[in-house]
Design goal:
This protein has 453 residues and is an alpha+beta fold. The chain contains 19 helices and twelve strands. The longest helix is centred in the last third of the chain and has 26 residues.
């Protein structure tokens, strides 16, 4: 029997169509004086100058690579259109490359969102639009025909819509317990036998990406103590940075970051961390759009060189959504990222925490986690039509579950309804926005690099 509260919340969602009709989901906004290239350049302010050419090279590689680095551009475009008013915790950058496998503290291999740098509360459809446009661009990158791409995006939205309806039928507790391990992910993607075998291969690779493998690849033992091995510009140990003047890195400030970060951990995890001491620090390049931000890896050693831990402390600045949705309610952005991640993910990294610390000019916000812990991702460029179709369905289920945990699932389900109107409208949006992203990419490639400094 349906309760009055469920009916009321579902009806409130249906009324939200007065703010944004389902057909309006197809609209592609354009703020006055739109200049995507200038917005991309704006995000380079304050980054490590010597790494910016690498960032531009990575973004120039393809329209899909460019799209990965343009969450700010899309946020500005979305803010220029009406929205549903149905608020959830947004990932803020929910493109298909920001989903993947990782190990839970209980040693389960889960599939989930894995990037929360831009997380902030906002209208649910912003994440969904970011996802479907990325699927359209991914389809173009692997040579799918228009009809095949349309099928991928329509089915992804359908998966989100139907999954949200399924979460409506569940208790709050069951929604929070929901997760996708490798077997469940294969089922949700409705994977073919070939795709299931490929998934198992990716899972096996993820299980091999352990702390031990990171240590072997990134460090060596010198006189009984581990040290990072320089591999510039991708990995630059602190001694190398100080010698070259790359950044005004302060070893005391960086090691103090870890000392203070303990306070953001649960008491049992503080006890675990207390057995380790920081022995080396390096600057590491990560991602596409994140290149140039300060991402430190910290090498911690326990009783000997074989007992070691690698943590990643990634700089957290204001979300690209904040100019359009309002400032974060947290005192610092590392906490904003961590709390958003904990809210959206089924299970989060054992060592996930935050701190404000040194390591460059002035104080900066960071969030901290293990560098590798059974982490793995799908090579979207290697997927074929059925593979991308299944992967899109799976990502949409994960996104629906994250939104169902953090927002009003009854209202979102009521807004989307039971027919395919939203599916078709968002597929229209995906195609139109991918066209725009391709034009933006061409303009970016043709534009001169900004002057140094």
């Amino acid at each position: 029997m349906t309760s009055p509260e469920r009916e009321a919340r579902t009806a409130a969602g249906a009324r939200a169509r007065g703010r944004l009709p389902l057909e309006g989901l197809a609209e592609v906004g354009a703020p006055p004086g739109r200049d995507a290239v200038s917005l991309v350049a704006r995000q380079e302010v304050g980054r490590v100058e010597t790494l910016l050419p690498l960032r531009r090279d990575r973004m120039a590689a393809s329209p899909f690579a460019f799209y990965r680095g343009t969450a700010l551009v899309m946020a500005a475009d979305l803010a220029a259109t009406p929205h549903s008013g149905l608020t959830v915790q947004l990932c803020g950058d929910a493109h298909v490359a920001n989903f993947g496998l990782f190990g839970s503290p209980e040693r389960r291999l889960l599939f989930d969102l894995n990037d929360f740098d831009e997380t902030l509360p906002g209208p649910f459809e912003w994440d969904l639009k970011r996802l479907v446009a990325s699927l359209e661009l991914a389809g173009r990158a692997i040579g799918l025909r228009r009809k095949e791409r349309r099928r991928v995006t329509v089915r992804a939205v359908r998966s989100y819509r139907r999954s949200m309806a399924e979460f409506v039928a569940m208790s709050d507790l069951d929604v929070w317990y929901s997760s996708a391990d490798v077997e469940e992910a294969t089922r949700l993607a409705r994977a073919t036998q070939e795709a299931a075998r490929a998934t198992q291969r990716v899972a096996a690779q993820a299980r091999r990406r352990t702390q031990l493998r990171s240590l072997a690849r990134l460090s060596e033992v010198h006189e009984g103590t581990r040290r990072f091995v320089a591999d510039p510009p991708l990995v630059q140990p602190l001694a190398h940075l100080q010698a070259t003047g790359t950044v005004g890195a302060d070893a005391v400030g960086l090691t103090r970051l870890i000392d203070d970060y303990r306070a953001s951990l649960q008491p049992d995890r503080r006890r675990l961390l207390s057995g380790y001491t920081v022995v080396d620090v390096a600057l590491k390049v990560v991602g596409v759009g994140s290149v140039g931000t300060r991402c430190w890896i910290l090498l911690l050693q326990g009783v000997d060189s074989d007992d070691a831990l690698v943590l990643q402390a990634k700089e957290a600045s204001a979300s690209v959504l904040e100019p359009f949705l309002g400032a974060s309610g947290y005192a610092q952005h590392g906490e904003r990222v961590v709390q958003g991640q904990r809210l959206m993910q089924a299970s989060s990294d054992l060592m996930l925490g935050w701190q404000r610390g040194g390591g460059g000019t002035g104080e900066r916000d960071y969030y901290v986690r293990q560098l590798h812990d059974w982490k793995g991702g799908v090579d979207v460029g290697a997927l074929r039509p059925e593979g991308l179709l299944g992967y899109g369905r799976l990502c949409a289920w994960v996104l629906a579950r994250a939104h169902a945990r953090s927002g009003d699932r009854f209202a979102v389900a009521g807004y989307l309804g039971a027919d395919a109107t939203a599916d078709e409208a968002l597929a229209d949006f995906a195609a139109a926005y991918a066209d725009r992203a391709e034009r933006d990419h061409a303009a970016f490639v043709a534009s001169p690099a900004p002057p140094a400094g």
